[in-house]
Amino acid sequence: MAIGHHGINGPFRGKVGTIVGYTLNGQQVMRAVGKRKRPFTKLELLNQAKMKAVSKFLGPINTVVKFGYQREAPPGSRVGAFQLAQSYVRKNAIDYDEEESPFVNPAKVLISRGDLEPPRNGRATYEDNRLTIRWDHQSGNARGEDRLLLLLYDGDMFRYLREVGAARREGTETVVIDALRTIKQPVHVYAAFQNSFSDRISDSVYCGALMPGEAGGR
Question: Which of 70, 129, 153, 210 could form a disulfide with 81 if both were Cys (CB 3.0 to 4.6 A apart)?
Answer without folding.
Answer: 70
